[in-house]
Known about the structure:
The complex is a heterodimer.
Chain A: E1 2-7, E2 12-21, H1 23-38, E3 43-54, H2 56-71, E4 75-79, H3 83-91, H4 94-97, E5 100-101, H5 104-111
Parallel strand pairs in A: 2-3, 3-4, 4-5
Antiparallel strand pairs in A: 1-2
Helix pairs in contact in A: 1-2
Chain B: E1 3-8, H1 14-27, H2 35-52, E2 62-70, E3 73-80, H3 107-115, E4 118-124, E5 127-135
Antiparallel strand pairs in B: 1-2, 2-3, 3-5, 4-5
Amino acid sequence: MNVNIESTEGGVSVARAHGRLDFGASAEFQKALEGAVGAKPKALVIECSELEYVSSAGLRAFLVAARAAKAGGVGFAACALQPAVKEVFEVSGFSKIIDVQADLATALAALA
Amino acid sequence: MSHSFRVEATADRLPEANAGLDAWWSGAGLPDEARFAFELVLEEIFMNVVMHGSPPEGAPCMVDVILDRQGDGVVMEIADDGLPFDPLAMESPDTAAPMEDRRVGGLGVYLVREMMDTVHYRHSEGRNRLSVFKSIGST
């Protein structure tokens, strides 16, 4: 998998996650998100429309990044989850602890 | 007809295990959208074996994956010759806990239970055997 991080004009960073977030990919993904949070944007949005798969290892990376964001006063949201990824977020209870938005526009509006 | 394959229980072999599942799944002509849950279960259980199965010293244990159609679903057995370990005995996480208190231990096995219709563990003939079944609808 890979993740590309870009900044919007509003000072929000958007991390676009592509591919499969399995055990092997989770450490690098977590590092990328922690780096993005460390740059102290106003908020970090994880855009997941190209994220095909997530396991518990991937969820951990989301959780670590969300905690770092909260500790650093950085807004945090995930958006545009594919149905299977969304199911994992819901079953695990992660959709209750991480702000999940329908799409990027909605997420940016919510974090503005 | 059942299909089986064997993979060494090390973290870097996870893609190989997943490829074995995908190859069977595609060959059987099963719907893509139903595959995700089985990939997830295979990863969670395989990684559990990687973490808990192999003795601290010595070679990694081996994982056998056996796949078959059963009724309107798929049955998958994941067996290993590692240390006896019942993943279903792990405590479930509190999925209602706030972020600060949220613990990640046991999350993988919790997902396995929730994503499958049935999950059974037994230890027999010196092997851990976890068997799961899920309906995939009419095909």
